[in-house]
Specification:
Blueprint (H helix, E strand, L loop, with lengths): L1 H7 L2 H26 L7 H17 L4 H23 L6 H23 L26 H5 L4 H19 L1 H11 L1 H6 L4 H27 L11 H11 L4 H24 L5 H20 L18
Helix pairs in contact: 1-12, 2-7, 2-10, 2-11, 2-12, 3-4, 3-5, 3-10, 3-11, 4-5, 4-10, 7-8, 7-12, 8-10, 11-12, 11-13, 12-13
Length: 313
């Protein structure tokens, strides 16, 4: 019991929670934005992988870290445009298109990486983002090191949560996006353009997904390898359901999964005789349980996965 209390009271543990949660925050918000306008984007796993590669390659080629993040966002937006053009104007299957983009983007990431680094036995490294303590706030006991001594992309992820929550529920654009996800025909009748709104939201959401991938190569680690996303994209899809399509709850879900993950990593070091695979399963099992408990009360956007064609009902 004392060991568990030591883990839970450790500043390093809670610093790790926010660090692990950051790519999930970006990815979950990206999925949430796509689904709020009625489009399921299962391309997230590949888009995050491609964003991780593009961000790393940009910095490896001489760009600065923020240029790497912007390049990743632009690459994600392009894949979002591809997904949007196939699913919105053409009305193709969102499941099939998303999975196809995941396969394509993941394979393209590895191909470009091997073109850039054809012979290295281990991935080359770059200098990642460093923690940026906020003067004054970072000196608050316990809370300061946890919340205010993170890397700049983590602060950006938290800011995006606030901006998206405000934008969706306090602005005319947010109302238009939500109306498009609930009833695009009603949005059209109000003079809005559901097709344009869906395409724009998918591109913006995909850019956020790619930034989540870039965080891994430019802040959490300092190199790229093709399997580094490790299912985080699928976790983000589940977290949106857990969050009932609300940005603040999405933040809570990402932190909850990150807590389980950080906790199991430390538990491995103090518990002997238990296969480490059981610890690796722990965050996923607990997340599934939380999802089951929350999903029963989730309200799905009414037009989710429903193609929209002007003039049809």
């Amino acid at each position: 019991m004392s060991t568990l209390l030591d883990i839970l009271s450790s500043i390093g543990m809670w610093e790790a929670v926010l660090r692990i949660a950051t790519p999930l925050i970006f990815g979950t918000l990206g999925v949430l934005l796509c689904e709020r306008v009625g489009v399921l984007n299962l391309g997230i796993e590949g888009i995050m992988t491609f964003g991780a590669m593009v961000g790393w390659l940009t910095v490896y080629s001489g760009g600065d870290l923020w240029t790497g993040m912007l390049a990743a966002a632009a690459a994600g937006a392009l894949f979002g445009l591809l997904h949007a053009m196939m699913t919105v104007p053409l009305g193709l299957s969102q499941h099939v298109t998303g999975l196809g983009i995941t396969l394509f983007a993941s394979s393209l990431s590895y191909y470009i990486f091997r073109l850039a680094v054809p012979t290295a036995s281990s991935p080359p490294t770059v200098t990642p983002f460093k923690p940026l303590p906020i003067p004054g706030l970072s000196e608050i006991p316990f809370v300061g090191p946890v919340l205010f001594s993170q890397t700049p992309p983590t602060y950006l992820a938290l800011a995006v949560v606030a901006l998206l929550a405000f934008g969706l529920y306090r602005t005319p654009l947010g109302l238009a996006l939500r109306m498009t996800g609930e009833n695009p025909h009603a949005a059209d009748a109000q003079g809005l353009d559901p097709i344009g709104l869906r395409i724009g939201a998918i591109m913006a959401g995909s850019a956020l997904m790619a930034m989540g991938g870039a965080f891994l190569t430019l802040a959490a680690f300092n190199s790229f390898f093709p399997t580094m996303i490790q299912g985080r994209g699928w976790i983000c899809v589940a977290l949106v359901v857990f969050a009932s399509w609300r940005p603040a709850r999405a933040l809570l879900g990402a932190l909850l999964f990150a807590f389980f993950d950080a906790f199991q990593l430390r538990l491995q070091t103090v518990v002997d005789g238990v296969p480490y695979q059981l610890f690796l399963m722990l965050p996923y099992l607990l997340s599934i349980l939380a999802l089951i408990l929350m999903a029963r009360r989730a309200r799905v956007p009414q037009a989710l996965m429903q193609p929209y064609r002007r003039g049809e009902r």
